[in-house]
Amino acid sequence: MATSDERDWTPTPTDGVSTPTSTLQAHTEEILKARYLSTHLNAAANANQEAAKKPFEPTLNKNSHVQYLLRNLRQGFPARYISQEASQPWLIFWTLQGFQLFGFGMDGNTKKQTVDTILAMQHPNGGFGGGPGQAPHLLPTYAAVCALAIVGQPGAGGGWDQIDRDKLYDFFMSLKQPDGSFLVAHHAEVDVRGIYCLLAVATLLNIITPELVAGTPEFIASCQTYEGGFGNASFPGWALRGSSIDPSIARPPLGEAHGGYTFCATASWVLLQPYLRTSYSQEGAVQPSVNLKALLRWTVQMQGSSIELGGFKGRTNKLVDGCYSWWVGGCAGLVEGLLGGGHSAKAEDDAVDAKADQDNSLFNREALQEYVLYAAQHPAGGLADKPPKPADSYHTLYCLAGLSASQHRVMPSKERRATLESVYHTEPESQNDGLRKEVFLSALSWVEEVGTAKYVGGAESRLNATHPLFNLTVTHTENMMGHFYKQRVPVWNPQKKSS
Amino acid sequence: MSHITVDDLADAALLYCEKPEWQDVTPVPQYDGILFNLSVDVLIVVLADKDATDYFRAVVKSDEISERVLQLTEDIIRLNPAHYSAWQFRYRTLIALKSNLDAELALMDVLAIQFLKTYQVWHHRRLILTALHGASPSESLDAAAKELHFITRALDTDTKNYHTWSYRQWLLAFFDDEALWEGELPYVEKLLDVDVRNNSAWHHRYYVVWGRVRANGEVDQEEVLKGEIAYTKDQIAGAPNNPSAWNYLRGVLEHTKQPFSSVQTFVELYAAPARKTAEDVVVDLDNPGPGPDAHLPCVAALEFLADIYEAAGGEQKKAVEIWKSLANEHDNMRKKFWEFRIKDAST
Ligand SMILES: [Zn+2]
After folding, report:
1. Which residues, in sequence order, are bridge partners of residue A313?
2. Helices B140-157 and B119-135 meet at what angle, rounded to 10?
3. Would the CB atoms of B36 and A73 count as touching at under 8 Å?
4. Could you tell me the pLDDT band of residue B40, with boundaries at 50, 70 and 90?
5. Which domains occur in chain A, in start order?
6. Which sign, positive or negative, has the C-alpha torsion A80, A83, A86, A87?
7. Which of A187, A349, A456, B143 has the smallest number of Cβ neighbours within 10 A?
8. Window A:10-29, CB contacts with B under 8 Å
9. What is the pLDDT of chain A when averaged over all its residues?
10. What b/e sequence results for A125-164 when a residue is b if at least 16 CB atoms lie within 10 Å of its CB, and e otherwise?
11. Nearest-CA residue of chain B relative to A95?
12. How far apart are CA A434 and CA A221, in angstroms?
């Protein structure tokens, strides 16, 4: 059994200067250390002789988390969720996707009920609201469509063909601003979360057009701050000339670099690559750019130290929090993909030889897994920010998704892309097929890299892989996109190649 | 999230279904018997919430514009400040009724402080300030100045509140008046005096100094740069292991296209494994050194120095040495990243 003194417990240096930030930081470090030590003590007390000989690794208490999700599903959500009446699709999505990560299917009746529940939130003018009768909004629209990807299917009552995509497109266009951004709802704010939600949905449902996303890459790029991460929006006023933007004038980011916005901006940037590739080349137009090195630096800087158990923070000098396991940990994978770090030739050619360290990840995957396993698991089930916070649906999903993202490397694969392209067929009547095809191939080229999975705590901790752009399983993503792009998606079976 | 208590509900003694002035409206219930029903143990809150929102759905359906809609949406917002549909409908009603928007801001002051972390409270204020500006740009400056004070009050209770800061930055740029901007730098300095690790304050500093778009020649850029570098060096000297200050220093140099090597002498003081002894110290006012309690070497300084070496050309080896020491000793958590830097520099 590993003893606690093998771990580096160096506190964050304060240089003899105590401020509110360092006080809170030190307090949190004590809490995390205590949690680690008590986990080891409990394990030692419960271990039989056989187990006591092996070094201890924390494991995922799957059973208690599944029970937590089931409680939400059966009994309804606890009182504190009432204030989220406006975000019912989110509660549904968080719960359903949690089950998917554990590999739990739903019975037909539950699926049907859920589809009906979600469809009741579709607005007559397109898009989904936070509840029935509520105005449509980009955030619940993402949650609703992703939930439908999980429980829905084509055909009458299946949910997929009942999404009014024409009206949804009109709704999206009605939110568009002169600076390339989108309001999250009518009379509401602009921020990159809404843009991510819009792009993810438009990609899944095959409604991306050049008209829809014109100016959006420039807007995203303008939200990158001097720290390398992204803020929530930028100020367009100085650059605005009537209804167009003067590219020579700056649009400063509003709000500091932040994990949630950085994930959304980075995922948006990835989702916009097909448009950037197909629309800027011919005109010789100036491509907007994101500083990827600065983004990578910021992302890895958010990983806490050993005494913080390797969790991620959401901003410089703030505290680690389980949900950033996904927002920042997941983002690290997206940045690696943008930097060209796809499946290494070695991994694809020689899938069986997993002994060599093929881990090309740029953040500490084991450490992040440890944070989720030690610090984010609530003893009564469900996952949380950190001790002693209660578990909630939001943290349960994003801690699990972050754990999954640190277990599996889902990366763009040239081989997968080539396979998809070889069977891609162009619809005779389709417009914008260059863009459409590129969107389809790019999104689905993300597959798990063979031989690179790592599980702290062994198979007991294993979760399913999740698509880094949508936070759906690759299978659900493929099924939904195959349907809406009218394409066959061949099974991905990379193992064959190595034999 | 559990900010609703039974006390809050005592004011709203009558449910909407019991109020005589609402008898003409047929409430629209959400839906029946589907997944995710709320449990009965939270009956009171649910009842009030459900009651108000049932009536809300009814007025949305009938597109009602009236004073009582303002009361209804206020009640809903008090129960559930994230109810964006209620905010949206409230704003529309205020504009349609040509309501007094100053009064609306005052009414919302309490809510904003109470629900500091909710997006909607800040966005609603932004809409109202925009409407006031549209009505009379010059008169609205007073409202903007008042608003800046209000934001300061809100930040007093939570100095890192994201939405509040973001809103403050929007307000400054939108009204873009010298009288509003001029207090910002002293304000930031006050906050950094209290907590030099407050990254929100550093970001705001960057926004105020470098983000603001001004006419050419309005300020002497060189002077500003000198001042900012000096200020940041002082802050680093006071608390060297502060990533916020180092990030600001990097940001300023990158923005003004100054090479990192322009601060090499300073950085070396913090990349050294220990402080120079008193007799070795040559007093250099431009390059304040670390204090006696400083934890050295400072990881951010090591990284900075390696960046200087990498950019210099021919000093690759020295950069690689530093990255190795970061990977294996000083910043082991980011081992993979430092190894990537080594690989990246060699290609
Ligand atoms: Zn969190």
Report:
1. A320
2. 160
3. yes
4. very low
5. 67-74+84-236+250-341+361-485 (1.50.10.20)
6. negative
7. A349
8. 12-17, 19-22
9. 91
10. ebbbbbbbbbbbbbbbbbbbbbbbbbbbbeeeebbbebbb
11. B36
12. 24
